Amino acid sequence: MEIITWTKSFSVGVKEMDDQHKKLIAMINRLIEEQHTLTEPETIAELLTGMTDYALEHFRAEEYLMSEYGYENQARQVKSHEEFIARTMDFMSSTEIGPNILSKALLEYLKSWLVGHILNEDMQYKAFFAHKGVS
User: How far is CA 96 from the centre of its chain?
Assistant: First the structure.
């Protein structure tokens, strides 16, 4: 599985959000790169939990910014964020993680969801925040 490479096309024009997106990408890339070398279930669980916790932190920051500036599509974003967390938790609890096993389906989901979310949903607020002078 290919890692995610950050390009300018991912930039939503808000430095804090871009920095957080870069960190999420780095976390997913670490899982992708180490999927065959991770041997301890506890290590895998720690990495996934850390990524999920950071995603929650990012979602809260993003939703706060949306609320602060009256972004009209906030409810759709919140729903998407909630669905991501629920689905990721389902993967984590339903996938048996053993030695050298990190669900390919989970990695594909994390990668495709984050890329799709940034390029489609988050990109929708780029012009909104630029108009509000948020960078």
Answer: 22
Residue 27's H or E segment, with its range, is helix 15-34
Contact 124, 74 (CB under 8 A): no
Provide mean pLDDT across the span 49-69: 95
Crossing angle between the packed helical segments 41-69 and 15-34, to the nearest 10 degrees: 160
Of the pLDDT bands very low, low, confident and very high (cuts 50, 70, 90), residue 93 is confident
Domain residue extents for the chain: 13-127
CA–CA gap between residue 99 and residue 82 (Å, rounded): 30
What tens digit of pLDDT does each residue of 106-134 get?
888 899 999 999 999 999 999 999 999 99
CA 9 to chain centre: 16
Which CATH architecture is the domain 13-127 placed in?
A: Up-down Bundle (1.20)
Please give the DSSP secondary-structure letter assigned to residue 13. Answer: S
Confidence of residue 100 (pLDDT cuts 50, 70, 90): very low
- 3-state secondary structure string across 34-51: HCCCCCCHHHHHHHHHHH
